[in-house]
Structure formats: structure tokens, C-alpha cells
Specification:
The chain is an alpha+beta fold. The chain is built from 5 helices and 16 strands.
């Protein structure tokens, strides 16, 4: 991953010696009610961006027409309450819990917090022992009052395990972007081109000078509830800012090379890689250094990385003949 990714959008966990991969959790899922999922209809959309507004190494463009089948997607990022039900049912242990630490934004730690190691290129990220989804800022913290916040400190494998239990899957990067756009074509944000229409904040990102001063113009320092802002045209909340969301694709900054059909049917990204795609940005994004909360913006991280600003939401395939969703894991 290039330095722009690692410094702006989060550190990455070094492979921990002796940490084994945990098997998939399958079966026994809750068959969650589809009322909390929205339908994204089949059709074509302009995937990517030709505006050259992002970091060149991110590979946002060129924009290409893509054809996708219809699907259902969670209206909200998976919350602490939902993830807790999964853990209670399966006794699942996340990667951060097994490794024993995770990365926490320094601004969320108390002034008298013990000395911690920082990331050289991004000293606002601190290695905090005991930090996990249960203890978001370390052992001194817990989930009291946080049930409706997005679950964080979850690796890509953790997200896959939840999806398998729930009878769902992670969205492809193309599915995620189409869902985020909410039916709007070639717009920067899920609500349009203007970041703050009529002065109104529509997402939870950093305002002020990063990382020293957050004016909290959007009302939040750190995470906001999963339904904090108005939904987009498909009824989806917080597709911009708040917490990054894992996608199923391996990352490549050259998604479309050479001649390709128009439209491209259901792209899935490369067959392998070292980093998985993340989309949507987080509460730490700021236009001065990380304008990655736009619809077309991209980032990625190693699959074993868990940080205090990355979560996920799930999708189901849509059975168009019966009008119902079915599991596809």
C-alpha cells in the first residue's frame, strides 16, 4: 500500500507471529428481517470518477459504465448491538481480541493515558493494548451507551464471519459504490455535489485542523450513531464518513486496463492481492489530506488490520423471480 493510504486512512497491523486464522462461522444465523435492508435495483451506473480529485495512486478513474444485478443492502452499518448478538450466539473472538491490541485515534484517549507506541507516518494512531470492539479505546472503555454506533476494530475476516452467520455477504466494491450514490449519477456525495448544501452537514467527518482541532461542526467527535444523518436516495445512512466499510474485493489501482465491453457486467476486482478495499471514509477524514469520503474515493488495508474507524455493512442477492432475498456467502 502506498504511503498516502497508510498515513491518511489508517495504519496496518503487522502479521502477528503465532496468530492462527479462525475458521468461518457458518450456519445458525438469525435470518434477519429484510425491513432493515434496502433494495438497490438492477441497472447500469457510472463507476469511478474522471474528475482527478483523489490521490493518483488510488485509481478512482477512469469512470466506466457497469451493469449490476439488483441486491439488498443494510440500511445501516453493523452496530455494536448487532455484532454483540453474533458474538453471543457463536462465541466468536475477533482478530484484535486474539492479538491483544488495536489502533486507536490518540484524540480519543484521556490525557493521563499511559505511553503508547505511535505510527511513524501517522502519530495520531496509537497501539493500545486491550482495545477491541468491546473496549473501543482500551480496557478503561466499554460499550455503555454505544449500542447504536457502528462496530469497529473488526478485521476483514471478522466481517466475513459475521456475514456468514447472518446469511449475507460483503458487498463488492461496485455494489458498494452504486448503493452509496443512491441513484444520483456522477455526483461527489450520496446527496449531491455540494458537501454542505445550505450550510448543512450531511456526514460525520473532521472539521477544523487535523489532528489538533475538531470544531465538531457536524455535531460529533469520534463516531456518530449508525443512523445519525439523513438517508440517500436508496434509504441508506452514513455511506459517507463515520466509519470505513470493508468490501469483498482485493485492491488494485488499475481496475480497468485496456479495451473492455460497455457496460462491464458485475466486476469483482482482481483474483488476489495483499489489501482489501475499504470505502466511504471515516470521522477522521478531512479535505486537506484525505478527501476519501466522496462516492468514487477508495482506500484499502491488509485483511488482518483492525482499527478504531473501520466497520462494515452486509448485502444479500436479490431473487428477482420471487422478489425476496436469499443468502449468498
Amino acid at each position: 500500500m502506498n504511503e498516502a493510504h497508510s498515513s491518511c486512512c489508517g495504519p496496518q497491523a503487522a502479521a502477528a507471529e503465532g496468530v492462527r486464522a479462525q475458521g468461518a462461522v457458518t450456519g445458525g444465523g438469525p435470518a434477519e428481517d429484510d425491513k432493515d435492508m434496502a433494495i438497490v435495483p438492477a441497472g447500469t451506473f457510472a463507476y469511478g470518477c474522471d474528475r482527478h480529485e483523489g490521490h493518483p495512486a488510488d485509481g478512482e478513474g477512469p469512470a466506466r459504465l457497469v451493469q449490476l444485478d439488483g441486491f439488498r443492502i443494510d440500511r445501516y452499518a453493523v452496530t455494536n448491538a448487532r455484532f454483540a448478538r453474533f458474538v453471543e450466539a457463536t462465541s466468536y473472538v475477533t482478530d484484535a481480541e486474539r492479538i491483544g491490541w488495536s489502533f486507536v485515534f490518540a484524540g480519543l484517549l484521556p490525557d493521563d493515558f499511559e505511553e503508547t507506541r505511535g505510527v511513524a507516518a501517522a502519530p495520531w494512531w496509537r497501539q493500545v493494548f486491550g482495545a477491541s470492539w468491546r473496549n473501543p479505546e482500551g480496557k478503561h472503555s466499554d460499550l455503555a451507551g454505544r449500542n447504536d454506533l457502528p462496530v469497529i476494530h473488526v478485521s476483514h475476516a471478522d466481517a466475513l464471519a459475521f456475514c456468514a452467520w447472518a446469511g449475507k455477504r460483503l458487498p463488492t466494491e461496485a455494489e458498494w459504490e452504486k448503493a452509496a450514490r443512491g441513484g444520483l449519477e456522477r455526483q461527489r456525495f450520496p446527496w449531491g455535489d455540494d458537501e454542505t448544501p445550505n450550510g448543512e452537514h450531511r456526514s460525520n467527518v473532521w472539521q477544523g485542523t487535523f489532528p489538533s482541532d475538531n470544531t465538531r461542526g457536524d455535531g460529533f467527535y469520534g463516531l456518530a450513531p449508525a443512523d445519525a444523518f439523513a438517508p440517500n436516495g436508496f434509504g441508506l445512512h452514513n455511506m459517507s464518513g463515520n466509519a470505513w466499510e470493508w468490501c469483498s474485493d482485493w485492491f488494485s489501482n488499475q481496475r480497468f486496463v485496456g479495451e473492455m465491453p460497455a457496460p462491464i457486467a458485475g466486476p469483482l476486482g482482481p483474483d488476489s492481492g495483499t489489501h482489501r478495499v475499504m470505502r466511504g471514509g471515516s470521522y477522521l477524514c478531512h479535505p486537506s489530506y484525505c478527501w476519501r469520503y466522496r462516492n468514487a474515493a477508495r482506500s484499502a488495508s491488509t485483511p488482518d488490520t483492525a482499527t478504531g474507524h473501520v466497520g462494515f455493512r452486509c448485502v444479500r442477492d436479490l431473487d428477482e423471480h420471487q422478489g425476496t432475498a436469499h443468502a449468498s456467502v
